[in-house]
Amino acid sequence: MQTEGYTDVSINWTAFLLKLCGVWLTENSVEKRKRKIFIAYTAVALIYGVYVNVVDVYHCWGDLSHCIFLINNTLCITLAIFKLSILTLRRTEFIYIAHHAQQKFWHMNYDRNEKVLFAQCTKLCKLWVVAMYLMTQGVLVGYIITPLSANVGRNKSDRALPFKMWVDLPLTETPYYEMMFTFQIICVYQIGASYVCTECFVCVLNMHAVCQFRMLQQRFLNLWPAIRKQSDSTDYADKCYAALKKCIRDHQSLLEFCDKLNSVYTLPILGHMVVFSMMICFDTYEILLADVSSWTRNIFIFHMVGSFIHIIVFTYSCHGLIVESTNVSTAAYSGWWTTLPLNKIGRMLRKDMSLIMVRSLRPCCLTAGGFFPVSLETSTAV
């Protein structure tokens, strides 16, 4: 099927973040070289981030508030390393789901009713990506403003960096201070991109998969009225079965996509759930109890709000996947297939309809390491 390519803010931004981290698809040798450069750049930023925070924890062990701040940073960086490592190891499956989304989801070859569903899906994806982008920017800008506000009134020999460096070098002097400040901020932004890129993409994929299941339900419901005026019952059954086979292929394609999506993201989801449960405690302490500057507190406010928005939107999209994949059974059962003649085609059609309904009773879902399916109940439990 020839499809018209489609793109919007949510797709462009998530693809840009994945390219920036060296995870996105490559089509030629130039893009492959760029991907290797971005992978190396990301690895340097993440390793440097872990090193700086761990060394600072070692030297400031008695300062509880500062140590929790550093441990929270280290958890975020470690989670980003874990998620990007899984996507690299599962790159074949990742390429499959990305190509599948491009070819099967992101196009405008839909009828009028399907375009309404697609528009609702893309609107929700845009709102999610923009909200996550703004929350991430709020956190990252806090890392820039905090040392700048601390430097007000200080002399040049006592200037603060975003992250303290325990090295015997003149980092407070010009131009070394400016160079180190810029390098740390570049690393902070790269770490931020690495932290949010995978979740942004999987939420967008989830929402589009939910939309495709809703479209499939409409096709099942519209299957019978489109050919109900046929006077010849045998011809009527043949056309029903031909249309049904296309719906079955679409259903099988969606099921395979969801299986691949779960195989790629099940471990990153588990890691995110575990780390999020820890970080929410650290964020609450830094916001309510820690003796820190107002800008440092703002970092944790934006981080907590962004984390809550993320966990709610993510579990909402996973819950929609469970519900809509199950609703395919109801949509299939609601047709007029019971009125078809009991000839060979009629019996085959009844058998296939039964298989569709039985298979749909086992919902598609994303799991956290295979331990439990992710749904709206997961967000309340966390």
Automatic annotation (TrEMBL):
<keyword id="KW-0716">Sensory transduction</keyword>
<keyword id="KW-0807">Transducer</keyword>
<keyword id="KW-0675">Receptor</keyword>
<feature type="transmembrane region" description="Helical">
    <location>
        <begin position="300"/>
        <end position="322"/>
    </location>
</feature>
<feature type="transmembrane region" description="Helical">
    <location>
        <begin position="37"/>
        <end position="55"/>
    </location>
</feature>
<keyword id="KW-0552">Olfaction</keyword>
<dbReference type="Pfam" id="PF02949">
    <property type="entry name" value="7tm_6"/>
</dbReference>
<feature type="transmembrane region" description="Helical">
    <location>
        <begin position="127"/>
        <end position="145"/>
    </location>
</feature>
<keyword id="KW-1003">Cell membrane</keyword>
<comment type="similarity">
    <text>Belongs to the insect chemoreceptor superfamily. Heteromeric odorant receptor channel (TC 1.A.69) family.</text>
</comment>
<feature type="transmembrane region" description="Helical">
    <location>
        <begin position="269"/>
        <end position="288"/>
    </location>
</feature>
<dbReference type="InterPro" id="IPR004117">
    <property type="entry name" value="7tm6_olfct_rcpt"/>
</dbReference>
<protein>
    <recommendedName>
        <fullName>Odorant receptor</fullName>
    </recommendedName>
</protein>
<keyword id="KW-0472">Membrane</keyword>
<keyword id="KW-0812">Transmembrane</keyword>
<feature type="transmembrane region" description="Helical">
    <location>
        <begin position="61"/>
        <end position="82"/>
    </location>
</feature>
<keyword id="KW-1133">Transmembrane helix</keyword>
